[in-house]
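Data deposition worksheet. Section B asks for the primary sequence of the deposited chain exactly as it was used as input, without tags or linkers unless they were present during the calculation. Section C holds the resulting structure in token form. Section D is free text for depositor observations; keep each observation to a single sentence. Incomplete worksheets are returned to the depositor.
Section A, Depositor: J.P.
Section B:
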Amino acid sequence: MNSSRPGPWGAPLGTACFKQQPEDFRVRELLGFEASGQGEHLLLRVEKRGMTTHELIDELARSVGIPARQIGYAGLKDKQAVTEQWLSLQLPGQREIPEFPEVPDWRVLEAHWHDRKLRVGAHRGNAFVVLLRQVEADRTAVEERLSRIRRQGFANYFGEQRFGRGGDNVARALKALAGTRSRKRLSRNRCSLYISSLRSELFNRVLARRIEQGIWEQPLEGDVWMLDGSGSWFSEEADETLLDRYRNGDLHSGIGLYGRGESPLAGPAAALEQSVYAEAGEMVQCLKQVDARYGLRAHRARATDLEFHWQGEQTLEIRVHLGRGSYLTSLLEQAFDLTAC
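Section C:
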């Protein structure tokens, strides 16, 4: 899982073992709204261990006798972890909450009726508790790096989950999306996965280029401003008020997610983005042939309520809340080279 992507605070400080067992990586999904108490969708908070979200959905569908397509979820959660996440089950005409099995891999923690299906991205973020073992790095330097991330955020790279096991989704996408015939053979989900991988890789390359050129704590001319924790953006000439909000983490620079539509970036910001796209011609050509709309993603993410505690000489516990779409691995890799050990 070692990353060669540059970080704004310098190279990783040392190595750490990550996810030696599921209990070393705990995630709690933060929904951000209350169930309505009525409707035909049963909103569930479920704990799972050692299984993917799609495996959990299949288990739930079998347990209540409904098709998997009637189950909604807000976000995918790691397999090698202990996670809590919300799902919705569409149960028209039913007012009794079903009896769910007691099995080792998953359990329902709470259930409430709701008036709509849970959609991807409906949650506001995730709360993490992670144990890093066999940490080989200077303790003082680690504490200083994590404190800096707490104050000033971290590079909002897409994490390794976006690129598949072994990180080969980009190569697979280039092969599968290159021709009309091969694209038609793909399922809708697989096609969407490959498109996301290519767009994520291009975003990561643009962000890496900006960091390499020292563009981090100040916006670049031609940038658009993105509101923290939101997909909202606006274009306005920088003044001291906006720059203060930028330095305080209330505003970030928007980086493009490649697709059809005109980029709002201008001047040097647009030129930097286009130079990266020019170097990735095959990826760009693949994306031009599929239906993906241009979007924006913030260059920086905030590490809210970040706490860290040493448990012995080489074990470090980290607790943090991250907004929707930000990756814990991207935070950790800006302090450590991570290995599965």
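Section D:
Residues 7 and 334 are 6 Å apart (CA to CA).
The mean pLDDT is 92.
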